[in-house]
Amino acid sequence: MNGVIVKRSGINGNKPVTLTIEITLDFICPWCLVVDKRLNRAIEQLKTPIEIKRLWYPFELNPTMPEAGMDRKTYRSNKFGSWEYSQALDAQTMQAAIGDGIEFRYDLMQVTPNTLKAHRLSWFAEQEGKATEMVERILNAYFTQGQDITNVETLAKLAKEVGLDADKVRAFLNSTEGIEEVKALEEQAASRNIRGVPSIKIGRETIVGAQSVDVFLAALQTAVNELEVA
Q1: How far is Cα 115 from Cα 131, in angstroms, rounded to an integer?
Q2: Taking the alpha carbons of 121, 60, 5, 22 in that order, is the dihedral positive or negative?
Q3: Residue pair 33/139 in contact by the 8 Å Cβ criterion
Q4: Model confidence pLDDT, tens digit, residues 57-75
Q5: Residue 16 has what pLDDT?
Q6: The DSBA-like thioredoxin domain covers which part of the protein (predicted)?
Q7: First to last CA, the chain
């Protein structure tokens, strides 16, 4: 799934050159939001004029999660052994991302979601050229506002905020459309040996996890240099 987020003039005044970034993510992963923020900052610091296109690939960390999700306290307590330990992990995330301008609101989260509908919505948004905007809105809705991203009405509202037709989104999510396509994209990620998220492919380099802005900037510059040579 793709979305162009930056358009600049061509290298050395020539025809615009496109650098494609492939990102595999799940909406339940806080580090995916951190990576999005850091990657955006790295792109802004990139001095070479370039057109950036993002391809978004779905990954479900909890593929067997009930369709409506689960009570977050119950799910996390069972997964991590106690609610206290779960809260400690949340605090670690907040501390690690303190310089990224993200106000995580774990206190507002009531549900650990099944993310298939959110991935389907991202796939739908790609057809409308809005994949990046949609992905970023869903991530922020969940992690900074505690919204239930399993809920069709919630997702339709978020879609409207990025310029999509809420009625079309609602009808789409209440159907089975897009499920086969999203599952096929997940299988593609598995075939590339992606076992966790976030995974970011920039040029010939694959970066795993929430690395620093400098790491992303270096990878971007290397990829741009290779495009220039080509």
Answers
A1: 16
A2: negative
A3: yes
A4: 999 999 999 999 999 999 9
A5: 62
A6: 20-221
A7: 25
